[in-house]
Amino acid sequence: MRPRLLISNDDGFDSPFLPPFAAAFAKLADIQIVVPAREHSWIGRAYSRHAELEIRKEELLGLNCQTLSGTPGDCVNIALAHLCKNPPDAVVSGLNIGQNVAMPLLWSSGTFSAAVEGAAWGIPAFAFSMRLDKMHYESCRLRHSPAPPELMSRLECASAHAASLVMDFLEKKTLKENELANVNYPSDFSEASPFVRSEPARAKLASLYSKNEHGKYVFSYKMGELSPSREYPSDVECLDRGFACCSIIKI
Question: Of the residues 18, 86, 158, 225, which has the maximum number of CB atoms within 10 A of its CB?
Fold first, then answer.
């Protein structure tokens, strides 16, 4: 019997990463997709408390896909409570356009938070992200342009790896209750890339804003000072070395 998976993200329905990611999982599992109608990056575990949320069916590769006029947390919560006929075997979030690494920045990620929502329901949960070089990040993340051929091959490879990893984790019952797997792929990921166990880097929070020429503050992401890792290499260190990595996080 094929596993049942709920797939969400924070980049929204228009994410160029969603079709190849969903297609890879559809080969191995029965999937239900519930994603934000528009992008909700860097929103963490926000809920739309004072809004009336609307669900819409969308066409995506002939798969069961719906969008919600809310946050990633809203998507997973409403899907589990109202849209899934049966509880899924896992909640899968991603594939995010850009890395999701380091504490406390992980808690700002909508991708990570969608997985946290699943884990909080007692369901095995996974968050998948991919570091990109500046050119591809600006194209895919800021303009939601289709992935160029050189990136698409890496994206498809990462998506296939992610689907296989979830199947393996479910078969072996790797995740314990209230645990989630946070997985990051390097920008040049291939089948030959090492895949290792990691832990979230421990970073001191630094200023996330800079003042522009108009005297206003604008978001300007910078990683703070990193502390030495403990049991496993940090997720930041792994990506810097070209390794794909998985951190098991208990919520």
Answer: 158
- The count of other CB atoms within 10 Å of the CB of residue 138 is 12
Phi-psi region of 42 (alpha: psi -120 to 50; beta: other; left: phi over 0): left
In the chain, the N- to C-terminal Cα span, in Å, equals: 29
- pLDDT value of residue 222: 75
Residue written as token pair 């290792």: 196
Instruction: Name residue 118's amino acid.
Output: G
Q: In whole angstroms, give the CA distance from residue 90 to residue 127.
A: 11
Can you state the angle between helices 149-172 and 18-26, rounded to 10 degrees?
Answer: 40
pLDDT recorded at residue 115: 98
What's the pLDDT tens digit per position in 145-189?
Answer: 788 888 899 999 999 999 999 999 999 999 998 999 999 999 999
What fold does the segment set 4-201+222-250 form as a domain? Stationary-phase Survival Protein Sure Homolog; Chain: A, (3.40.1210)
The pLDDT value given to residue 134: 80
Instruction: Return the structure tokens found at 229.
Output: 């890792």
Q: How many CB atoms lie within 10 A of CB 2?
A: 12
Decide: residue 215, CB within 10 A, 0-12 exposed, 13-18 middle, 19+ buried. Answer: exposed
The ranges of the chain with pLDDT < 70 are 142
Among 244, 227, 229, smallest CA distance to 187 is for: 244
The predicted model scores a pTM of: 0.95
CA atoms within 13 A on the CB side of 19: 12
Side chain identity at residue 41, one-letter code: S
DSSP state for residue 140 in the 8-state scheme: I
Domain ranges of the chain: 4-201+222-250
DSSP code of residue 87: -
